[in-house]
Specification:
Elements lengths: L1 E6 L8 E8 L2 E9 L6 H9 L6 E5 L7 H7 L12 H5 L2 H10 L11 H19 L15 E5 L2 H7 L13 H11 L4 E2 L10 H17 L9 H7 L10
Parallel strand pairs: 1-4, 3-6, 4-5
Antiparallel strand pairs: 1-2, 2-3
Helix pairs in contact: 1-5, 6-8
Amino acid sequence: MKIVGVDCATEDAKVGLALGTLIGDCLEIQDASLCSRDRSATETIADWLRADNKGGVIAIDAPLGWPKPLATTLIDHTAGSAIKTEAHAMFRRGTDVFIQRELKKTPLDVGADRIARTAYAALRLLASLRERLGVAIPLAWHASDVVTLVAIEVYPAATLVAHRIRSSGYKKPQQVNERSEILEALRRKMVIRESVRDLTLSADLVDAVVCVLAGADFVAGRAMPPDDLAIARHEGWIWASRREA
């Protein structure tokens, strides 16, 4: 089974991608790529997945929905009118609250932060892949859904915390040693082929590999499910496993 990790961004030139395969319990990273204006994320992912008719997962580091109260509150709102809905309910999704409670990591508020543009880009990417590959790519809500190509929302920081791996202080270009520390820990969870480019060069590549790990956790049934599936289907859900003992 193929798992594609996508560290999403508003511009293709800032998107990091990783391709993994999961055979039984063995997870292997086969390739990784930084996109560019000349080579889009859609093209790379489509090339990785086109020849595979088996089930697979696209694990995307970006919100795939907005808080339900945001839509219901604003539909009849007029300029200058007071808003009675509590701010957190409008701007923070149920899954964001859940991840903060369980893993002590707070995702950015998709309803009130520039991450909304990344969410928009992620949804456009999914639409583009559906058109390019000619498949539906629905969101998955259970490991048993992975009988075709599906997509899930993930959050690398939460997955790193769940696996007790460094989850901060590695994003700056000069923090190569910190990225090396993360990759050393990840190699205890997976095989990274020698042919894969130097992942320490980019935090985007590291995050894409962590997205693949999150996808493997989902397939294995380790990811925590939503309490309210109806709300999750509207707002989206971050799939992350529980913190290791």
